[in-house]
Amino acid sequence: MRRYSRITGTGSYLPPRRLTNADLAEELAASGVETSDDWIVERTGIRARHFAAADVCSSDLGVEAARRALDAAGVLAQDIDLIIVATSTPDMVFPSTACILQNKLGANGCPAFDVQAVCSGFIYALTVADAMIQTGSASKALVIGAEVFSRILDFKDRTTCVLFGDGAGAVVLEASDTPGILASDLHADGKHVGILCVPGHVSGGSVLGDPLLKMDGQAVFKLAVGVLDEAARATLAKAGKTAADIDWLIPHQANIRIMQSTARKLKLPMDKVIVTVDQHGNTSAASIPLALDTAVRSGRVVPGQLLLLEGVGGGFTWGAVLLNM
Ligand code: UT7
After folding, report:
1. Which domains does the chain have, with CATH numbers?
2. Which candidate, 315, 322, 320, 323, places its Cα nearest to that of 123?
3. I need a surface site. Which of 134, 275, 298, 314 has the fewest CB within 10 A?
4. 254 Cβ inside 6 Å of ligand 1
5. How close is the Cα of 311 to the center of ligand 1, in Å?
């Protein structure tokens, strides 16, 4: 009998400090940076974001989301046999955030590693976990997206610092004899490294180069709307489905206008799109599992529904996963 993987529990966590656009605009104004709630809402759909306290790392946010996903799945931490953390804001250069999180969770012993695909990280991590479950290398996996993007924001650059926030989302993915994950489609094109990057690196005890986020927003926007449409169609085609079969589209939560454009191209009404970007901004690898968990807990996403998850981000990376809940 063929072996599949299936999501059996979801969880998410946002750090308590919440800044509305007005709060952030006020803080930025104190250092001479001008922005407004109107601009941010109109151009992005973002209304608020959460920032972690200075001593809180991605693993701290991730472990809270993981505990909630384990509770929802009715799975004990010690029964987890694979941990994958998608993050671009790791706790340390090494070891991986997954190893640090594993120890906090008390799931010691199982393989644990990070995936670095920026805002597509959760889609990459879910696809890797699915493949490992299908081949029998794992049976109960935790797949987590966790970020503290506030650490890498340039608060003098209004074109980027208003966009991002901190948070984490997680799923428990278990082996199943019914699908689960039906298809996925991953891509990267390294010629676009420069349009979205944090170019600094550690060398000889110092950070060389700029350790803050740089983005050519318009270039990212244009690429994103094209590749998200291609990834959606390719993933649906692999599973013999069409956009009309989808119950929910759960895209990376970066900008409402990108989500609207994706939905329009797929001829999906916006009431089939899960939108949480207004509440937490762009949380990079955390945004898709955060949106998924929000939709599950609000009763919109229910077992048996067909979901298309889609991510796009630095690298340039992009991809999609089609699954039955
Ligand atoms: O997670 C990875 C994926 N990342 C993304 O999806 C981001 C993709 N890009 C975007 O979402 C959009 O390009 C942005 C939201 C970043 C920018 O929106 P835009 O509609 O492309 O604005 P723009 O860059 O063309 O800027 C328009 C104006 C400029 O002023 P001028 O030159 O027209 O006078 C900017 O200086 O808006 C100005 N502006 C701001 N004004 C107030 C830029 N940032 C701000 C700001 N507040 N925070």
Report:
1. 4-176 (3.40.47.10), 181-324 (3.40.47.10)
2. 320
3. 298
4. yes
5. 20
